[in-house]
Amino acid sequence: MATIDYVIIVVYLTALIGIGLYLQHWASKGIDSYFLGDNDIPWWALGASGMASNLDVSGTMIIAALIYALGVQGFYIEIRGGVVLLLAFFMVFMGKWNRRARVMTLAEWMEYRFGSGRQGQAARVFAAFANLAFAIATVTYFAQGGGIFLGEIMGIDADLAAVLMILIASIYTIASGMYGVVYTDVFQGFLIFGAILYVIYLVMGQYALPPEFAVSVPMGDGSFREIETTRQAWTNVVPDWRKEVPGTYGQYDLFGLGILVYLFRSCIDGMSGTGGYIIQRFYAAKDEREAGLLSAFWIVLMSLRWPFVACIAIMGVSYGVTNEVIANPEEVLPVVILEQIPVGLKGLLVAGLIAAAMSTFDSVVNAGAAYWTRDVYQRFVNPDADETTLMWQSRVSSAVVVVIGMISTYAFSTLNDVWSWLTLSLGAGLLVPQVIRWYWWRFNGYGYAGGVAVGMVLAVLQRILVPELAEMGQFLAVGSGTFVASVAITFATEPTDRDVLHTFYRETKPFGLWDPVRERIDAIDLDAIRAENRRDILSICLAVPWQLTLFLTTMMVVTKAWATVAVLSVLLLALSVALYFTWYRHLSVSEETSAAVNPATADVSER
To answer: Please, which of 60, 234, 275, 448 could form a disulfide with 106 given CB 3.0 to 4.6 Å?
Structure first.
């Protein structure tokens, strides 16, 4: 890169640290400020921060690699996690269900659902440590991808690059908590947005896919193989049922079945309410209406990711036509930036991608520290701790999450390796009990705690004993084992107290298997709950295809397949109009009605 590129990056990083340190005094008032921003952050800022957090450089490298090697249909593989399809569920009902609990963390929510007795405490402890483990694994993923990217760009060792990036991000994350996470993300979002628009402009004006060209795929032994394809096949949006791809991407040969598994996995992820840094933004929302609005804004902003990665893939293909074909698909992003982006703008784009990497990191670390401070230290170790002690614990635990995550990078060989295990093995082990807790009254805290423990053990054993197991196999093996354990432990132990279940159901209003609890609900209230449930179920059946269509439409624009763009646009418009009537018009103006059901629960500390 030229001197001006380095100047742009240094100015950006300096501004980022300055913003974080400026916000330190806002976050230092207490842990409510540090982890939730005092529930005073506007929905648009939370949504923009969420977009910046999801648009990480590691994920961008993987998605660009899949689209480069497999064409537009690489999109469907990323339904496993990169599409972030769970946002549709948060937009419709998961956002408001979680916000109605008025808690700080997912682990604290467990006592709201299972009570403050032994089973609630067991669920809370296991939820806290499971989400801490997931946060550490996510930091590992961030560190590996960020190190590869920055190391390639700067011409330095990948491990050194990862340490430098994480050190800078840690300064403002540990100092300013949720305020720093959100507002530095908003600042970074403008930079990311500018970089994306520039790349789209460049490709639309100067690049076109040739009728025939070659791409490359990894063979799994460190080598790569070129494969021939055509523009028509590369831009085909209709997914094939089967594919014949050599090497490690051969695990996607049962393509149609794989898409169904990924779609199922993403839907249960959305129905589970998830955890980590995503859920933290909904706990931080002002009310349940803003929880819905921030989800919609988050989705719309995320739609910009797909034309960006498609542009990177197109530029990678074009580079291979006039030069050597890029052998490693995961190096398409850095090669394109180094070889095809002009001086000056190169620095802007690199700064934007560093911003994307750091915004993921800061969110994960802040959420992970919340589980230790709120759910382990304050709840069980030192219940009488003052705010100064809790703030000290928050910052130290943030640093510990970072260090352990960095050390764990040596357990994985490729980014796709980390991501598939994170989403389809460890993720499956945590998802199953997460889902059941919402929809089955009989599920208790012991079933949740035992299911989480079994799921984590199965995921680790899979990684140690059968690391070569395909993604679908990981998901089915770990998920089914966790389900059996969760249900068995639930039936072997006593049910949750009926008063606790009654309070939870009246406040949260979930659908599912709640008949014994519904018997205690007044008929008028029950009719209102059922009407809301029917609207939500109808809306989610529209929101999932709406989000997928939105992302596909924006991506297909840069491929210039105008007939496909026209069809997708009509479908997108129809789904948008339907969602307006089934979802948007029914967004709650405030959460006064929900809070009025049980005013005593307004004090989170009592839980």
So the answer is: 275
- The set of residues, in sequence order, having a beta carbon less than 8 Å from that of 237 and lying 6+ positions away, is 72, 73, 552, 556, 561, 564, 568
* Model confidence, pTM: 0.82
Quick check: 71 and 65 in contact, CB under 8 A?
no
The whole-chain average pLDDT of the chain stands at 84
CA-angle at 173, arms to 169 and 174, nearest 5°? 115
Q: What are 299's two structure tokens?
A: 């989705």
Cα atoms found within 13 Å of the Cα of residue 549, Cβ hemisphere only:
18
CA separation for the pair 11, 473 (Å, rounded): 46
**In sequence order, what DSSP letters do the residues of 358-394 get, joined into one string?**
HHHHHHHHHHHHHIIIIIIIIIII-TT--HHHHHHHH
**Are 282 and 273 contacting, i.e. CB atoms less than 8 angstroms apart?**
no
> C-alpha distances in angstroms, 384 versus 38, 116, 372, 389, 510?
21, 17, 15, 10, 34
Q: Does domain 3-224+235-606 have CATH number 2.60.40.10?
A: no
233-259 burial string, b = 16+ CB within 10 Å, else e?
ebbebeebeebebebbbebbebbeebb
Strand-pair category, 224-230 with 212-218: antiparallel
Among residues 598, 27, 67, 28, the alpha carbon closest in space to that of 317 is found at: 67
Q: Judge contact between 202 and 55, C-beta under 8 A.
A: no
CA distance readout (Å), 345 to 122, 193, 316, 320: 52, 13, 18, 22
292 and 95 Cβ atoms separated by less than 8 Å: yes
Nearest to 53 by CA among 367, 296, 290: 367
Domain boundaries, the chain: 3-224+235-606
> Closest by alpha carbon to 316, among 541, 589, 534, 66?
66
Report the C-alpha gap between 233 and 69 in whole angstroms. Answer: 12
